[in-house]
Amino acid sequence: MQNAKSDRGDTPDLEGLARRIRGKIIEMSHKAGAPHLGSSLSCVDILVAAYWGVLKINPENPRDPERDRFILSKGHAASALYAVLAHRGFFPRDLLDTFGENGGSLPEHPSPGCVPGLEAATGSLGHGLPLGVGMALASRIEKRPYRVFALLSDGECNEGSVWEAALFAPAHSLENIAAIIDYNKWQATGRSDEVTALAPLSRKWESFGWSAYEVDGHDIHALKARLGEVPDGSGRPVAVIAHTVKGKGVSFMEDDNNWHYRIPNEDELKAALRELALL
Amino acid sequence: MRNAFADELTRLAGEEERLVLLSGDIGNRLFDKYKQKFSNRFFNCGVAEANMVGVAAGLALCGLRPVTYTIASFATIRCLEQIKIDLSYHNVPVIIVGVGGGLSYAENGATHQSCEDISCLRVLPNMAVICPGDAWEVRSALRAALKRNGPSYIRLGKRGEPVVHKDAPPFVIGKGIIVKEGTEVCLLSTGNMLPNAVEAARGLEERGVSTRVVSLHTVSPMDEELLAHAFSNFRVVATIEEQSLLGGMGGSVAEWLADRKPQKACLCRIGAKNEFLHEAGGQEHARKIHGLTPERIAEKVVQKL
Questions:
Q1: A257, CA 20 to 30 Å: which among A142, A162, B20, B64?
Q2: Which CATH number fits domain B177-302: 3.30.450.20, 3.50.50.60, 3.40.710.10, 3.40.50.920?
Q3: Separation of alpha carbons A24 and B227, rounded Å
């Protein structure tokens, strides 16, 4: 891989990095026979923006009490988080090749503390935001000014616990938490706006007392700018509705919900890597 | 039990600055003293138990020691999956306190009765399930749970139950407390049935049956040493709980027994029937229906002798 060193810090070529991470995720899915590829690909740019330039984190000291916290509430995109953490220097990249292996440390949904840099075990939806709210509250009680980012899927917003947390955070003026919604317009078996009345999503968060922003979820620099402004000065928690494309980066996977569960075969892997200019 | 909990919690918050109290919109005035002293460590989470458990886990993951408090049924099976994932799986030091365990709030109807919580929580890895027998045990249980490095559930009764112990008894999570000595029958009581167990023992003694009473306050982890001794030394071991007969403390003892060679003692499980009460009526009435009065307990034991 090129630019291996610069991946560890604030690299100028974040788009190239995101492309390489996408390639790695597709390889991981192919090798492990693991589903949720479309969901992992849709949030890569959000993760790259957060981990390269927004989060105050130190891979050398992953348990620093002052660090910013990032929770992948949509735990089914674990391959994306693992790839990002490895490229950010939290653990060796070789470990990614053991994704989903029997007895390995990278389950398809992350277990507690399975790798350095992982803040919470997820997989069951609707857990990450309440956890994040608790962490944001802890920062206030302990007078440690860190921030908390929770990445949710749009389908996850079906869960009542998301909205319980959404009601709670503004009541306590928790301005150091951001809920990022990976709004790829699909959930497991249907359009997310059709399965439940999700739209207008931004106005829902706004009406719950959050500062809601819509952003192109594949524009890394726009994401960095938006996430960098948490807290945003309003005294309210921040919701970032990131418009994304499920399966982003590979033409034959984009917006095709079959790739929620489908595993790429050898030919599809090669075709995808070629499209990403990695082969 | 309820007031002892609030009082002890306020005391502990003074000793442990990481303690944070989360309430599910109940306990009006109960925490006035706590709130007065520790206003920055009290949060009313509203009627949103799933979020309350998640928030507690988030606090604990950042090094704090949260205590959640609401009515037993809402504190537990209402948000069981949050408890499983956020607390048990992460193995974080959160104390869930449920008030109105068993039939304590019988008059409110089956929605407010909680005869399933012990069964549901005792199967969760890392979770300590503690059912104090009286107000003294409540204080000790809270203190002990706060020292644990994993999640605990403390099941309270209500306000004003009879106090069994004269003082705070020696209390270790996972170790039963012998309340009264005896040689033929061993009554294992968990939670708020302890006064009835003591009363039942009195009835048995009047019939010439020497009876030991144990407050088996911890259902998980089970006191296996105590069970091994009881089943090899007594004629009847009876489990007594204001909890479903399915999977509760008695169920737990039955599982233990099933995995062993035949023992000297036979088991007599006394608990709530697996059915909802549809009629009105208070705790004493509900206990009569479920056969949990001291008289019925003694009769059931005698039948096994």
A1: A162
A2: 3.40.50.920
A3: 55
